[in-house]
């Protein structure tokens, strides 16, 4: 269990509002022999906690090791079994010397911030960038990667084309359910899933809430504990602690009901002509209608208008 | 109607009330009252060095900077114990706290000299030039 304690300590020592990378050394054999690399993610759907991208890689001719570790369809494995496999990957001699891994913890705050940018960045983009970043990272560290297998929920073709463009010398396979088809993807999926589970387990609320995962649950919107958390832990002004992905509709809808309304500046989407000056009502071409107040008020100089300054008395 | 503002802070020993923090959040918040700023907001204010700040509000990324108030000015927060029912009666406010600068935040955009808020402060210098007394002007020239 020391290995898992170690993982928890690493998770605890990082700022949970930011992303961070946790990776193994590159086994020396992976620098010489051509390697296959698997990519998978955990925690894409939940409204709480980070999304984790995981990769695992080993020499192509060493795939037997993955099977002996028990890397099969990770959805079919229990939590205990997944923990066990990760412990072996981290401590068992032949596994450690042949299989390298890395995980990127993408904070819920980063996810909300990305989806609420002025130029929105979708979850798919966040995901793809993380996968690309991880592959680049281990290549930089000296791993000799020649095949990459990626599990995807979306349409594989576009994703595959993009990766092939970025890594022209690597054979790329993007497919649905890669997790159950390729043991190296199962290994990646175990790295991701165990990291995500422990990230929730050790989550510290910097907002000072005294709560833990037994009270907020798995983070899936269907989990009764998570539902309760989303319903009851609303702050009037700030909404939620940063464990929550604000950009999820579950959270958005609850804040509409329970928190103060907040309106940000509207960003004009390219191509929308909603308030186009060309669509003036026809009545505007007839005699100007003078609003009583407007007619009386002396028009302000542009200087003030540009600075949003006016003569209203705030004490009225 | 006249407005009275009373300042009893002069007697206060507590330095904090003179140097409160004010946050300018770039959205309309339909709430009036206290807010858990130190709990929910301040832990996530980061300084990237060179005075560039980042924070987050309701899932939105914020870029910020500290804007000092113009020389000779202080910001004040006033409280009113009872608002008179009649519009004509006098109103009485108390100074609850003071601040010297404002943490100014933009949504996903680095603050600049072109932001309305920063430009609005220019009026203070211009007003002084237009409406300031002659005495002030000569003083300034001497400096």
Question: What this model shows, in words?
Answer:
The complex is a heterodimer of chains A (316) and B (143). Chain A has 2 domains: 200 residues, 2-Layer Sandwich (Nucleotidyltransferase, domain 5), CATH 3.30.420; 46 residues, Ribonuclease hii. Domain 2 (Arc Repressor Mutant, subunit A, Orthogonal Bundle). Chain A has a 6-stranded mixed sheet, with helices on both faces. Chain A starts with a helix and ends in a 10-residue tail after the last helix. Chain A is elongated. In chain A, strand 5, helix 8 and strand 6 form a beta-alpha-beta unit. Chain A is built from 15 helices and 7 strands. Chain A has 316 residues and is α/β, with parallel strands linked by helices. The mean pLDDT of chain A is 89. By secondary structure, chain B is of the alpha/beta class. Chain B folds into 2 domains: 109 residues, Lipocalin (Beta Barrel), CATH 2.40.128.680; 32 residues, no CATH class. Chain B is built from 4 helices and 9 strands. The longest helix of chain B is centred in the last third of the chain and has 10 residues. Chain B starts with a strand and ends with a helix. Chains A and B meet through helix 6, strand 7 and helix 15 of A and strand 3 and helix 2 of B. Chain A: This is Ribonuclease. Chain A: It catalyses: Endonucleolytic cleavage to 5'-phosphomonoester. Chain A: Keywords: Endonuclease, Hydrolase, Metal-binding, Nuclease. Chain A: One of its GO terms (biological process) is DNA replication, removal of RNA primer. Chain A: One of its GO terms (molecular function) is RNA-DNA hybrid ribonuclease activity. Chain B: InterPro entries: RNase_H2_suC (IPR013924).
CATH superfamily of the largest domain in chain A: Ribonuclease H-like superfamily/Ribonuclease H
Strand percentage of chain A: 5-15%
Report the structural category of chain B: alpha/beta
Gyration radius of chain A (Cα, Å) is 26 Å
CATH topology of the largest domain in chain B: Lipocalin
How many separate domains make up the residues of chain B? 2
Largest interface: A-B, 35 and 29 residues
- What sort of overall outline of chain B do the alpha carbons produce when their principal axes are compared? globular
What structural class do you assign from the helix and strand content of chain A? alpha/beta
State the name of the first-level CATH class of the largest domain in chain B: Mainly Beta
Question: Could you give the order of strands across the largest sheet of chain A?
Answer: 1-4-3-2-5-6
Physical arrangement of strands within the biggest beta sheet of chain B: 2-9-6-5-4
Radius of gyration of chain B: 19 Å
Shape of chain A: elongated
Encode the helix/strand succession of chain A as letters.
Answer: HEHEEHHHEHHEHEHHHHHEHH
Number of helices of chain B: 4
Oligomeric state of the chains? heterodimer
Indicate the percent of residues in helices of chain A. Answer: 40-55%
CATH topology of the largest domain in chain A, by name, is Nucleotidyltransferase, domain 5
GO cellular component, one term (chain B): ribonuclease H2 complex
Pfam families (chain B): RNase_H2_suC (PF08615)
InterPro entries (chain A): RNase_H2_suA, RNase_HII/HIII, RNase_HII/HIII_dom, RNase_HII_hlx-loop-hlx_cap_dom, RNaseH-like_sf, RNaseH_sf
Cofactor (chain A): Mg(2+); Mn(2+)
């Amino acid at each position: 269990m020391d290995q898992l304690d170690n993982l928890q300590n690493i998770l605890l020592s990082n700022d949970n509002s930011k992303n961070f990378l946790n990776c193994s050394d590159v086994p020396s054999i992976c620098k010489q022999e051509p390697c296959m690399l698997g990519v998978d993610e955990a925690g894409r759907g939940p409204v709480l906690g980070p999304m984790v991208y995981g990769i695992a890689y080993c020499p192509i001719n060493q795939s037997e090791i993955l099977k002996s570790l028990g890397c099969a369809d990770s959805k079919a494995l229990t939590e205990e079994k997944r923990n066990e496999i990760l412990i072996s990957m981290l401590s068992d001699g032949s596994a450690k010397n042949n299989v390298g891994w890395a995980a990127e913890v993408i904070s819920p705050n980063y996810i909300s911030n990305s989806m609420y940018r002025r130029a929105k960045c979708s979850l798919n983009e966040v995901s793809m960038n993380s996968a690309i970043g991880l592959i680049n990272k281990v290549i930089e560290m000296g791993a000799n990667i020649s095949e990459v297998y990626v599990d995807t929920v979306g349409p594989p073709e576009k994703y595959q084309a993009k990766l092939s463009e970025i890594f022209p010398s690597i054979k790329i396979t993007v497919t649905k359910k890669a997790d159950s088809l390729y043991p190296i993807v199962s290994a990646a999926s175990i790295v991701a899933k165990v990291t995500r589970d422990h990230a929730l387990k050790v989550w510290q609320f910097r907002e000072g809430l005294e709560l833990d995962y037994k009270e907020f649950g798995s983070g899936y919107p269907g989990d009764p504990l998570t539902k309760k958390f989303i319903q009851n832990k609303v702050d009037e002004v700030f909404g939620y602690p940063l464990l929550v992905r604000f950009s999820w509709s579950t959270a958005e809808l609850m804040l509409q009901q329970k928190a103060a309304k907040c309106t940000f500046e509207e960003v004009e989407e390219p191509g929308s002509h909603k308030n186009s000056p060309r669509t003036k009502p026809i009545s505007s071409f007839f005699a100007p209608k003078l609003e009583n107040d407007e007619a009386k008020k002396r028009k302000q100089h542009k200087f003030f208008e540009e600075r949003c300054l006016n003569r209203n008395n705030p004490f009225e | 109607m006249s407005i009275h503002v009373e300042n009893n802070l002069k007697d206060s020993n507590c330095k904090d009330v003179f140097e409160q923090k004010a946050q300018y959040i770039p959205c309309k918040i339909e709430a009036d009252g206290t807010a858990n700023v130190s709990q929910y907001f301040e832990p996530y204010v980061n300084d990237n060095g060179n005075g560039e700040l980042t924070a987050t509000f309701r899932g939105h990324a914020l870029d910020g900077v500290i804007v000092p108030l113009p020389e000779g000015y202080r910001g004040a927060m006033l409280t009113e114990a009872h608002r008179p029912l009649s519009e004509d009666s006098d109103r009485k406010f108390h100074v609850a706290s003071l601040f010297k600068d404002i943490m100014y935040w933009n949504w996903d955009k680095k603050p600049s000299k072109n932001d309305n808020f920063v430009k609005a402060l220019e009026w203070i210098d211009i007003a002084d030039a237009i409406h300031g007394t002659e005495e002030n002007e000569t003083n300034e020239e001497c400096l």
